[in-house]
ThiF family adenylyltransferase (Bradyrhizobium septentrionale), 470 residues
Amino acid sequence: MSTDTLTNEAKRENAAMLAAALGIGVEAAGEALQFEVAITADPTDATATAIAADMASLLGRTIRSATLGEADEAVVLEILIGDVGAKAGRRSLRIHVGSEGAVIGGPHVLCLLVACHAAAATMQAIFQDRLPFGSSPLRVSFDQFGIEPMEFEAPVDIGHAYLAGAGAIGNGFLWAARHLDFRGTLDIADDDDVSSGNLNRQIWFTKDDIGLPKADRLAALAQGSFPRLKLIPRRLRLQDLPEKSNGPWLERLFVAVDSRRARRIIQREFPGEVFDASTTDIREVVIHHHKQPTLHACLSCIYEADQEEFTREHHIAEHLGVSAEEVRSERISDPAAKKIAARIPNLEASALVGIAYDTLFKQLCGEGTLQSLEGRRIVAPFAFVSVLAGTLLALEVLRRRGAKRGAADCNYWRVSPWHAPRGRRRVMRPRQPGCEFCDNPVKRCTLGRGWSEPPNITGVVEESLQFDFG
Ligand SMILES: [Zn+2]
């Protein structure tokens, strides 16, 4: 796949990310991404060919071209998967599969996981020491996930669940979950439309989807891959859905929204069980899970307001000519749109209403309209990072479903795309003192009773934690 499938806006998003990572200008970064790789896999090895196809999809969203098969003269790196020979004199990156029998004939979702890490390794091979992640050999070992092999084939009944966010991680989640046997109903809540700058990382979407509602397009594109999971598009943010109530209305929730603040707002709905994935630009993926009743961290504890968020909001407000309070409201209001249009040339106020501040700001950064960049968190990650987050989110469902031991002992896992996943980095994050949700006993007491007997995904072991309000 080549980046001909990408719009100029999507290419600029990639360039802005690389620019932030390398500490160079956006234009130079855009040029640095214009390289080609060829991917060659052992055709007799189904695992190798699956990884190759996934890598081509992921890298095709990031660099100029990632083609399967024969390498032409323009290729700067040949990626060799499985038992294939290198071309004499050409630089190559070799990916061994199944050296310990873990991958051979392995589930496709694990091939996708390897492809995400292999895409990161490809970038590392090209940019070497300029990327600050180190370049030791990367070994993805599946015993780190705590999932029994038979779990990959078994049906996973998620009941009636919600997915908050049909952006990069929501796309990645369904991109990975299509290799699993998910069943039930999934409402996909997102009020945003696909924009041209999304195509670098929202893996289901193509140019044909630009301007259309994300929730509708994701449900329509993915449904064919989920014969037993009904996908229902909802063109609203989760907290705006009409079925929302003060009682326990949200049994199970997958969180794939795009900001820390949005996660805290979602926590106010008091979801019964939360599967959450987030990215910290291209450095890291965070996986969080909790199920009420819990004594441990909620979304608001994990994503508490921090100095970087505060600084960034003020930075955005200053550049756009609005107040920080307006930026915190997330979406651009009618009066705010007029102020922004008055401040920044060539913007039409009517076209700005309803857009997320982060989205507009990213767009303006990519276009070089705003020169300085406060904090890298605003920059959109590469496709393989968002898809890694979505894949780990899907795997977390399997892990919880089949968990015999240990799953209840941790609620937080940080995984770097640039290093091997390590199960022992899972931790149990405690409640955060001053959490806007956990430190509100009235809210917990009023809303929480409904979750005194939380529903289970079929097959999940009970967590024996105490309910703590009152
Ligand atoms: Zn909390």
Observations:
- The radius of gyration is 22 Å.
